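Q: What does the assembly look like in three dimensions?
Context provided by user:
Components: two
Sequences:
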Amino acid sequence: MSLISLIIFCPLAAAGIILCIPNSFDKVFKWIALFATGIQLAASIVLLYGFNQNRLADSWGEIFQYVEKKQWILIDLGSLGWLSAEYHVGVDGLSIWLVVLSGLLLFIGVLSSWKVKSRAKGYFFLYLILSCTVVGCFVALDLLLFYVFFEFMLLPMFFLIGIWGGIRRTYASIKFFLFTLLGSLFILVVFIGLYLSVSDTGLSEELSAQTGIEEVVHTFNMVTILDGNYDIDGLLTPNEGFDVGGMPLRYWAFIFLVIGFAIKLPLVPVHTWLPDAHVEAPTAISVLLAGILLKIGGYGLFRVAYSMFPEGAIYFAQHIAIFGLVSIIYGGMNAMAQGDLKRMIAYSSISHMGFVVLGLAALTTEGLNGSMFQMISHGLISAALFLIVGVYYDRTRDRKIENASGLAIRVPNYTFFTALFFFASLGLPGMSGFVGELFVLLGAIGSENSNGLVPSWIGIVAVLGIIISAAYYLWAFQRMFMGRFWLRKPEWEEALHDLTIREWIMLLPLGILVIFLGLFPNVIFDVMSETVHFFADFVLTKGAEYAPK
Amino acid sequence: MSEQLYQIFNDLNLLKAEAALILATVVFLVIGLMTYSRSIIKILYIACLVTFIVFQEGIAIDSSLIFDGIYKIGSLESFYKLLFVIFSAFLVFYPSEKKQGVEFYFLLLAIVVGSIFMISANQLLLFYLAIELTSFASYLIVSLGSGTRVYEGSLKYLIFGGTSSAVMLYGMSIVYGYQGTLILTDFTYFGSESFYLFGLLTAFAGLFFKVSIFPFHIWVPSTYQEGPNAAISLIATVPKLSGFLVIIHWIESVHFFSYEWGRPLLVVLAASTISIGVLVALRQQNAKRLIAYGAIAHSGFLMCMILLPNNMGLNAFLWYSIIYAITNLGAFMMVSIFESKSIIELSDYDGLGTKNVWLGTIFTVILVALIGLPPTLGFNAKLYMMSSLLSYVQIHNDIWILLLFIITALSTVISLFFYLKVPYNMFLKSSNEVSVNTSFIEKIVATIFSMLLLLGFLFPDFLINIIDNIKLN
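A: Here is the predicted structure of the complete assembly.
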């Protein structure tokens, strides 16, 4: 079995093993989960190590590495032609870091769920299924496979929030499920349209030779679609002239994809599920939600929406940039108004994911690099922040900012990590948050003079977002950690002790990485730069070529 | 004369599976009346169905008309007949209810026989006899339910069913008057004579009643709720699918789509069936009623593929119908397992998941398949349906079908909301933490249903091969 399949299916196998072990051995489950995610992490690091970052490519077919391909569904749908879907996986510069990030966070997530006692079997079973699907999403090179992973993620997530969550967990889990399902249907509609417009010539000839009649094989293969093997009169073939409501169908398809992925991302105004889901989810699930699941929205924009509909990306660049800007500012303002620490961090996530969209919309090399970097950096920082909240919540069962002050005196190590990640998140130079935001802003402000897609004022206003985030982080820090030591309820004092070894193991690697990547961002950039260059060129040239005439 | 006789005897040979099933059914009734042991009755019931399978010669049969064109055989028909028989064999594994003696299983067999003749009938009279056999058996079997309001359900069914049969017969006689023949394949396109159209539409109305298409769906919820579970899961699958196959055959025979209003009419019916089904299901508090309204919506989805030209829709229809049958049999089985422990309303399901993890998981898988999400076969069904709709739009630029496509997509979100109520109550709420004792065999059969849905999704080759074997004419 090759490396990528190992990363995808190792947790699934572990889930199967968990299913067979009786409930009475409830101590074993977390070790199995830790072991499986450990293999995922190790395998993804091996993957990164063997990744050839200097590979030059002229087409998407040459970009992907570690490619595995196996026919999965091939059926005859009558006069529709054949439907072909493959088990087709591989990584490129856009996805490799996200795979590594997932491996790391999934591993840390198991550590942070170490104390899960009630129904541990179900919890770790669902957790492992989730681990399988999130990684599958990043490596899938077949639209149907991608969709299956994308959709299948919802069920474990629904139960994980709904069963092990906080007080309003049922409301939050249903809201999460409905929002994301609605989004994924928008995506499915476009995927079906794409598959009907693209055919696999090699497979068609092979089948025609077998049956003796001319056969058309429509395929979900992403690489075939990216390389532009459109049929002559397909529904979503560029310049085919299908108009709905006075706009080419391909623009509609682009809008649908953006809506679908924006819900996952989430972008204002479809963000409302996120704060609820975060607040109610158990700590480990919040970590995964913020650290990985939101990135799938961003990754989907890169991989599907922007690469497959480049002319839409160019046509709507300004609108999308404005949505990104609104997310940055509105998310930040909301974060400032929150009294609940976890809710504040959830809104700050919305604000920081806005940078990802802004950098993408600008379509300059700096912006795209920054956008990708921001995803990785936000993955680390937000995961750490939710862990931080979890540490405090474990002790006091409370998250209100106003219920504590002067914690720095009592729990210095905890305070140190909180300060570290707060500063990293607000974009202090020398930490990873700064690099991502800086590059995004450079790209957004420079776009007007290089490709003219996004006016400079959007980037300039977005700088306000950093100031807002400094305001709410510093204010929260001052209220909770500075001043006289005081807690709302005296019994919390006993429970409040400093970090345990397990918590050190969770937080320390994240802290080191955040600083390391802030000082040496090239580690990230070098691996993905070839792909990002290719992506930028591809979107701009194909965007001009596909634009409706 | 002798040649004609020779032909008839020759054709009889092709009918031996059906003949064997009828004969076995009669013998079953006679022997069954002499015994009180339910397990013997169940074994005999299975034996009857096996007789059919033994005499049926596979599904690779060339299409032809026998008995002077009144009976149609072919791989499509044989496939569905086998499918009906296999599905009805599963019914013995449902938890038994009070009034289920030999007559219950006899009526089940009668429904299967009627459905088998329905899909093969190529002549209006034979068709009418077959559909009435199915209907009469269904009216009777529904009244064998053990619910408190069972007579309301069965009477509703009888009155609506009888009226619709009469109306259909009336319409068929008008169509016969114009066409001058009873053989469906000899029908010709007859133009827009208004009385003829009136007859045609009334005949179709009767068929729509059988497959619960809006506005002829009103009997479904009460009937499904009150009838015995095994019978209902049969009625919801076998006669319904054969009804759809008949509709396909009729549409072709009378050249329904040559009328310019033909397709838009069916689009409107399909769209309203789906919308009514999913919207009313949202408000249901009873598990069986919920599945009943879901089944109405699924009728609308099946309709979506019928209103496409055959070479586009039929393949997707095959997939959808098989998967629909598996999911519905599974869903009704789960409901009846819980119902036998008097867990009936949705609120009774609260917290059951804690003690019955396995049953809860199986039920969740089946419901996820009903919604149409991966990783279950339900997703394949929805996918093929949506792609056939969209490809019709691509070729014909038809705004009606595009609207229908949008409705099918939106209804999936709504159906998530109500189907998910069951696992939501089971796992996310915590009040009624009792454990449901089920027999081992029930658990196994229910597991088979859910495993079919999961494994069929991951390894679709098996189903693909079967469907490829059906030579579509």
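Follow-up: The first strand of chain B starts at residue 64 and ends at 66.
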